[in-house]
Amino acid sequence: MKTFSKLLGSVALLGASVAHAGELEVTHWWTSGGEAAAVSEFAKAFDATGNTWVDGAIAGSGGTARPIIISRILGGDPMGATQLNHGRQAEELIEAGLMTDLTELAEAEGWTDLVNPPALLDACTYEGRIYCVPVNIHSWQWLWLSHDAFAQIETPVPSNWTEFAAAAPKLEEAGIVPLAMGQQGWQQNGAFGVMTIAIAGLETWRKVVVDKNADAARGPEYAAVFEAAVDARNFASNSNVQDWNLATNMVITGKAGAQIMGDWAQGEFQMAGQVAGEDYTCLPGLGVNEILDTGGDAFYFPVIDDEETKKAQMALASTLISPEVQVSFNLKKGSLPVRGDVDLSAANDCMQKGLDILKAGGIMPSGDMNLTADTQTQIEDLMAEFWTSDMSAADAQERYADIIASAE
Amino acid sequence: MKRGPVMSSSNARRPSSLFRNLSAKLASIPMVLTALVVFVGGTAWTVVYSFTSSKLLPKANFVGLDQYERLWSTRRWLISIENLAVYGFFSMIFTLLIGFTLAALLDRKIRGEDVFRTIFLYPFALSFVVTGLAWQWILNPDLGVQNVVRSMGWESFTFNPLNDPDIVIYGILIAGLWQGTGLIMCIMLAGLRGIDQEIWKAARVDGIGTVKTYVRIVIPMMRPVFVTALVLIASGIIKIYDLVVAQTNGGPGISSEVPAKYVINYMFRAQNLGQGFAASTMMLLSVVIILIPWAYLEFGGKKRG
What domains can be seen in chain A, in order of their start residue? Predict the structure, then answer.
């Protein structure tokens, strides 16, 4: 009975806390070990400003969480703040006036000068107003190589995709899967995107993805990409795992030679106690074209008609982008900070490589920022089919070009 | 004087037809309203907006049949329809066949009937998500059936439906049958118990064999039970979603996609309401095409008879 009344009390407290000012419910989908540790950095810093962070983690990936978040905002039950990938996902919510305008705060703190690369802030900008706070940069363009696997076939660890492709038959002979690949559309689509940049180059990519030029997608540069994708498909034909971290684990244990995966894979290597450069190697841009995309996560603040809540929202926005929080969060998350003026000497080998590329300006906008969710789903469907069937490179290219032609 | 009673009798009759069982009619008003507003209204709204270019939010921006043209030229939708047809056809036949056979066997007054009935009905107590996950493991080549058979010495045995795009839908079918036949068996058993024992005695006197009695006499008598079972199975087929999501999530590739998953994906993940509405309208249409002739035969015939 005592526990029950305690429970009742805490429920009542919870109910009251929602109405209380200075408390924000923040929804996000960072639930894995490393991610949760990173989020708690945000919570700590926000609590230190005298407000209270009410954690609203949604288990599952963005694909699961995003519909929940959007339907809550549309349904008139908005949270105080929420994670979303910036880009076109929130475009219509902004259009409908459901997101808080952060322009004043951004101007006061000079975000336009701080945020590097500036494309990040552009993705938060809609008709000249700023609606979100970018918090990190995640890039897809990494090839992770297992030293153990290459030691087994007595071949030096490749330094680019071509060398890797040449070594692949040897790996296969030794019973090692050359390329680990989770059998999920987004992973296959991501890997394809990485190969596009590495093989077709940034200019062609820009024509296709930014300008939606279907003729460029039918051209010889993309034909080469699809040919390479067919090779990669053969390399990965014995990779029977689903989730990306299981695929990464194949690389960690030396059962697979390599994996194309974003920089979040680094957390897995770290957890396994592996050291960059000794146990594994990371090659940005497949070692061919050292360009990183600037996708990432951002926080949006739904409009809530309450002065206190608005104040707390502004305080959180300001906290998220402050230099100390940027460092502590991104070190735990394994991602790169959104501002160029912070010290990240504690970062490991791979992160340093990424920082150098950022400094050198080897950046591109991410697909999220240019393609609608609709177009991306269509491409993912195509990729899912392409990677699991024996569809020819030419067929896949033609269908890809059709999707680009009909994209908005 | 002559008009008076006529009027009063007609007055007295009219309210009697309208207000007869007044409380029952009043009580059903909420359900009638719900049906009209939520089901009919919601359906009509969905159909209307399937002709628009709505993205994340519904917008009355009409584009004619564009969404339908795109839908029917999408590989994923065509594969979904094909999968539903295969799953539906085999699920219907095997559920009825296995369900009835099990029920008929239990009906032979065997010992321990309660135990068997419980065992067969148990899978139905599990949700599709649990069923899907359990069968994902059972059919996993490294953990499940294939591994067990191989470890018993048959090294070349291969049974890996979930990773083969050509037969993955049968892997889902197995799980669906395992989950669904128990309920159909129970319904069939109830139907069999409803058959008068005198009929069995009469058949025995006439020297008709057991199987023949079932096929020729008992099954025709169980027509209403079969109709109930048919409706239950059919609605289960058309709405299949969670089983696929849990077991394969549409994979490998898009080879085990189903229409309901297409609808959900395009409405919420791809943020293209128009496309999702068009797909759900097609699902409704397919149900209507099957249902209307059937309802006409089933209920229209009775009125005439």
Answer: 21-138+295-358 (3.40.190.10), 142-293+371-406 (3.40.190.10)
